[in-house]
Amino acid sequence: ILAAAMALVAFGVLEVAEAFFIAAVLVVACGALRMREAYAALDAPVLILVAALIPVSETIQASGGTDLIAVALSGAFHGLPPLLTLTAMMLVAMLATPFLNNAATVLIVAPIGLSLARQLGYSPDPFLMAVAVGAGCDFLTPIGHQCNTLVLGPAGYKFSDYGRLGAPLSVLILAVAPSLIAWFWPFT
After folding, report:
1. Residue 46: what pLDDT?
2. CA-based torsion, 21, 27, 31, 35: positive or negative
3. What is the pLDDT of residue 88?
4. 3-state DSSP assignment of residue 38
5. C-alpha distance from residue 139 to each of 62, 122, 168 (Å)
């Protein structure tokens, strides 16, 4: 079911949300997952956070806030190589994630990345991918990503342990990922 949903999206037959909603319904309908298990898997605080931030994201866009921030950023990044601008956008997402959560960061930072790309005359694809990767790469705290939180207690980690290993890993991601993103999603 997952492979079929991914193929439908890859070949442009269905949009991402449609394909994966249908896949989720099919997984439950064929008995691979019971409704009770599906409901138990939902992380209520994350759902509430994301639901609460959707209107915030829409308001920032509708009020012109994303364009205002993008104009300020484009002024700061004007004349810089596009790869450096892409790296900075990824860094913004990485720094916001510990405070918001990865999904909420994308809701807030993605419209800014989109507007920034337009302001600078670049394709929005690499900037949106940089936001997605940056938001998913919170290695500095146990609270920015649910996987970090899950291993905190059982592994006996302390809050400070994340920064010691996470900082070099974050620098590595910032050094490698923007070039790969620009290669797969060119600026033009």
Report:
1. 64
2. negative
3. 93
4. helix
5. 32, 29, 9
The residue assigned the tokens 């342990």 is 161
Task: Name the nearest CA neighbour of 152 among 164, 141, 137.
Answer: 141
CA distances (Å), origin 120, targets 41, 79, 89, 130, 143: 41, 9, 13, 16, 33
Q: How far is CA 97 from the centre of its chain?
A: 9
DSSP-derived secondary structure letter, 144 = S
Q: Left if phi > 0, otherwise alpha if psi is -120 to 50, otherwise beta: which for 43? A: beta
Residue identified by tokens 């060119």 is 186
The DSSP symbol for 52 reads H
Q: How many CB atoms lie within 10 A of CB 104?
A: 22
- Which two tokens mark 29? 């309908």
Q: Say if residue 39's pLDDT is above 90.
A: no
At residue 42, does pLDDT exceed 80?
no
Q: Residue 149 is encoded by which pair of tokens?
A: 């939180």
Alpha-carbon dihedral sign for residues 47, 124, 130, 2: positive
Nearest-angstrom CA–CA distance, 86 and 68: 18
The span from the first CA to the last CA of the chain, in angstroms, equals 35
